[in-house]
């Protein structure tokens, strides 16, 4: 499933019809390939402890957040208002997002 | 916690099991300070409790709990938490104290309402009398943010006061705030989820935790706890309410909602972050490696420890104990000159003449005095490696300064907000070996003291990560005591030897961790960490943290150093140590191609890691032999204290596996290197 997402992602980057492909993405992209400096919307958090901890820190499904930094190796730093949170690649790729255009 | 009224020591862990006893013992009302990390809670605590503070390290954790008195109240400061539950040690400690609290002062960072008010709401839902302290209000104003605290108070149903930790404004309202603490609004939706029976018998706090599926608390009381879905539903409901409240009370004047935290961003950016990291590491190296490990420890260990403490202790014992004393003169460079032996057949007391000439010989400060006690029991306790001589010098005059230096640096990194960013930067490298960025803390501490670092592996998220981190620490990280000696030896052996040594150790570090990552079952937890704003840390907080952590460590670990020294001492007396050395000698000579005496250095390394390296000083080794022997002493077993702590933390099976593998790997890799380079 992850592999397939990557493929769609690549299609998006090189795609001619940007808007039409973007619609596909709105449902399927994950946070590990969010772009630095862009706003994104959280569509789905993984179940369990991670979700609970994210909710505590102020991030829940439907929230609009900012991708502050992407480090080599996939570690992502996101920001919601003044709250900055860093998360590892393994976690980021379980979080479904849509990128605001 | 100690209460002034009763003077009875209350174990905070028992409070939960025994709530009735907890409340009858304490006549004072218990005011508990609760808040997220980095909200300025300790400023409020210092203001209220003044100088009379009692800090207890929570049993089985490195978490400290401070308590003090203010008027008729007992004030307790809890560790920073994001919510009340049982996710980690900090939360467990805070949870037990919160359940027993009469009044809660909830300190909130006004810049992080979304994060902080989640805890606030939970505290109110626990049915506690709460007052909210909005801290950092001056910074809020500076950033052109408005918070309507009257509206906040109306929406939560509790008192709200505004303070600023920087210029201490608003703190005068705290006494009034304690008095005005009251229970806030709880929605029917939440109340409906609580078990009425638990509320009646144990209070709403416990009922809420049970409903939220807190397995630990529920198991203690034998209640059936809510499911993970229940917890999620409650959390989502709470988050929704908090977001609605924030939408009503917070206004941002600046059109852009982003707060620009320049230093914070720079330290995370791959381009600027690495140079910043390099600068931080160089400063750390200078501060710890040079100032503390060389200069401070040089003085405390050699002068305070050996010249004063050990000399006078041993002299005192020599009053009545048979002893041969060797007095060696030292010149200005520390080279040994002429020596003289004093043989007291029955101790100083029975040979005053000889004592007098001995006193004369040692009156010159530039002498090295070696006591050789005849009685094996006296030797065990006061000899060169004695339990009361060497171990105390080691603990107080070598380890304590180093441990304090490391905890000081950790506190500065932590309070400045750099530590979580460092963890973020290191996340990539560490995740390759099955750890996450958080593991940078124990690994960094390992360069100070492997024993201290092994205890710190508790902060890691899974057993798997704890095992990997412990193995890395025990196998390849040289502690500062050893590092100092290694540096000197490697420097004399020249750049080629140094290169061989460094290459082998780095290769081993990568190999050991990668192999463990591949073969250990299960999954490691990914990084999820809150990045607080970068700021200048408060010096009093840093000193307090450093002090309590150092003392906490010494209290917990000292006993293992004593037991270790006793064990090795007994092995020496019974001849087991000799058997061990003899067993290693052929391997040392034939396989490692080192002189037979090197095996003694290896065995001594099990007592104190630096002894292993120090024992190599007097051997005539070629540069490549130095490289091989340094590889062996770095890779092989850790000192006996860290071995004991590892057994305690990781269990017998795992501890012994790591210990035995360390021996095998050290000699295997050392021998293979010898095959190539010697």
Tell me about the largest β-sheet of chain B. 8 strands, mixed
Overall number of strands of chain B: 14
Shape of chain A: globular
The name CATH uses for the topology of chain A is: SH3 type barrels
Q: Note the beta-strand portion of chain A.
A: 25-35%
Helix-strand makeup class of chain B: alpha/beta
Rg of chain B, rounded, reads 29 Å
Q: Unreliable segments of chain B (pLDDT under 50, ≥5 consecutive)?
A: 1-24, 255-259
* Cα distance spanning the termini of chain B: 60 Å
Averaged pLDDT of chain A, please?
76
Greatest interface by residues involved: A-B, 36 and 44 residues
Structural class of chain A: alpha+beta
Question: Can you put this structure into words, describing what you see?
Answer:
- The complex is a heterodimer of chains A (101) and B (678).
- In chain A, 37% of the residues lie in helices and 27% in strands.
- Chain A is an alpha+beta fold and 101 residues long.
- Chain A has a single domain, classed as SH3 type barrels (Roll), CATH 2.30.30.
- Chain A has a 5-stranded antiparallel beta sheet with strand order 4-3-2-1-5.
- In chain A, helix 1 packs antiparallel against helix 2.
- The longest helix of chain A has 13 residues.
- The N terminus of chain A is likely disordered.
- Chain B is an alpha/beta fold and 678 residues long.
- In chain B, 61% of the residues lie in helices and 12% in strands.
- Chain B has 31 helices and 14 strands.
- In chain B, strands 1, 2, 3, 4, 5, 6, 8 and 9 form an 8-stranded mixed beta sheet that branches. A 3-stranded antiparallel beta sheet of chain B has the order 12-11-13.
- In chain B, a hairpin with a 6-residue loop joins strand 2 and strand 3.
- Chain B is elongated.
- The N and C termini of chain B lie far apart (60 Å).
- At the A-B interface, helix 3, strand 2, strand 3, strand 4 and helix 4 of A face helix 5, helix 13, helix 14, helix 19 and strand 14 of B.
